[in-house]
Amino acid sequence: MKSNNTIAAISTAYGFSGIGVIRISGENVKKLIKEFFKETLKPRYAHVKKIYHQKKILDEVIVIYFKKPNSYTGEDMCEIHSHGNPVILETILDIITPKYARQAKPGEFTERSFLNDKIDLIQAEAVSDLISSSNIEAAKSAANSLQGEFSKQIHFLQDIILEFRSKIESSIDFPEDEIPNYDKKIFVNYILKLEKNLKCILDVATSGSILNQKIRYVIAGKPNAGKSSLINCILNTESSIVSSIPGTTRDSIDYEVKIDNFIISITDTAGLRLTGNVIEKKGIERTKKALSAANRILYIVDAKKGFTKSDKNLIQKYNIKNYDIIYNKIDLVSIKAHRKKTNNHYEIYLSAIKRSGLSGLKKTILNHYKNTSLSENVMLARKRHIECIEKSLEHIATAKKHLQNYHLEFLAEEIRIVHKYVSSVTGDDTITEKTLEKIFSDFCIGK
Q1: Do the Cβ atoms of 412 and 405 come closer than 8 Å?
Q2: Which CATH architecture is the domain 146-211+381-435 placed in?
């Protein structure tokens, strides 16, 4: 029995849980069901069955059969819902493979859904983006794309381009002096309409691409200002080494923390100062790299010493921009926890050790994060989408020049290229096997 065209994988995350799911898709699904469960199953119904291993019951499971084309992949599909024990799930998968199916590659179920015209490429990518969303707004935007909202905009553009191309082609056979003036006006209107819609989509796509990027915060400052204590306070753990000895943190350490519905990336860094210690110097070099990659910097100072001239010099030396100042250890100087806006940054007064003033810091972080988020109509977009739209706009600009000189053959070629780039966003006829492989390799196994 050939199993190359049938795939199987555990679709739920690894670990112990109430339920685990195994997915099987392909031509051997019916044979597998018949041999495993000794009967045909009514499609789209939940059937309680037993699975045996070495002639003994392994687990009681729920089996759902999806008859093609009414399945996620467009093929015959089966889902086996067992108890969520990795040992049980892996044993069931071992029984299925390699006789009935092979192990699925990452994203292969969704790739088959795309190849069988169940979804377009934007929707396929949205599946992965929805799973990996770092905040609720990104999840909603990915859901918009999955429901086809982004695709509708692209298809609208494709319709305009097709109309335009047909009008250009029908005019090419006419000598220049016989072309009615109204044709030129129509062509100008098409160009302007395409340009306007492409720019609108580019704005939406650029905004959407930001949504799923975790904002990276870097905590910086002099040694012993309380950077690691602040990290522990935010994480509510003892993850970082806390010591009264300056220069204890010698490396940049990345953490992720959930604040409200947002996942924030925070980096603890080595203290900034002049030092002869070789290891500490390397730590400061890593701090410089972290600072250059940060979206926002939390510059921390000792509230007792205040923001000094040397702090100002460090900010200038390391080209620190987009920063807020945290005055830590307010418990030692009897200052109440508060925050205030000064110029382009906030000043937050807190005590990491006493966990006082942390709410002000969280409000500041969320304020910056939410400033990057836009309306609910934003669709989650990828770099690939943005590049395709940008290339389209470049060729629209060239097409404008050809239209001015009425070089119709050149105009037709530029609009054909625009059509190619726009169509590649949804994967219509122009996507290469290499591109597909790259896109779906980023998916998790079982999706």
Answers
A1: no
A2: Up-down Bundle (1.20)
The span from the CA of 76 to the CA of 56, in Å, is: 28
Local confidence band at 370 (pLDDT 50, 70, 90 cut-offs): low
Instruction: Tell me if 336 sits within 8 A of 350, measured CB to CB.
Output: no
User: What is the 3-class SS of 93-128, one letter each residue?
Assistant: HHHHCCCCCEECCCCHHHHHHHHCCCCCHHHHHHHH
Q: What average pLDDT does this structure show over 23-46?
A: 92
What do you get for the CA distance between the two ends of the chain, in Å? 25
Which pLDDT value is given to residue 178?
A: 54
CA distances from 411 to 62, 169, 403, 422 (A): 59, 10, 6, 17
At residue 369, the pLDDT reads: 63
Taking the domains of the chain in order of start, what are their residue ranges? 7-104, 146-211+381-435, 216-370
Dihedral sign (CA 31, 34, 40, 43): negative
If 0-12 CB within 10 Å is exposed, 13-18 middle and 19+ buried, where does residue 95 land?
middle
d(CA 44, CA 70): 9
Superfamily of domain 7-104: Probable tRNA modification gtpase trme; domain 1 (3.30.1360.120)
* CATH tag, 216-370: 3.40.50.300
Q: Retrieve residue 343's tokens.
A: 């110029």
- DSSP E strands, 174-270: 216-221, 253-259, 262-268
pLDDT value, residue 242: 36
Mean pLDDT to the nearest integer, 145-156? 85
Predicted pLDDT of residue 280: 53
The Cα 380–Cα 138 span in angstroms is: 7
Residue 403 CB neighbour total at 10 angstroms: 20
Q: Is the pTM of this model over 0.85?
A: no
- pLDDT score for 250: 47
Residue 412 has pLDDT above 70, yes or no: yes
Helices and strands per DSSP (H, E), number in the chain: 14, 13
In this prediction, residue 89 has a pLDDT band, given cuts at 50, 70 and 90, of: very high
Q: What is the pLDDT of residues 51-81, one digit of tens each?
A: 999 989 999 999 999 999 999 999 999 999 9
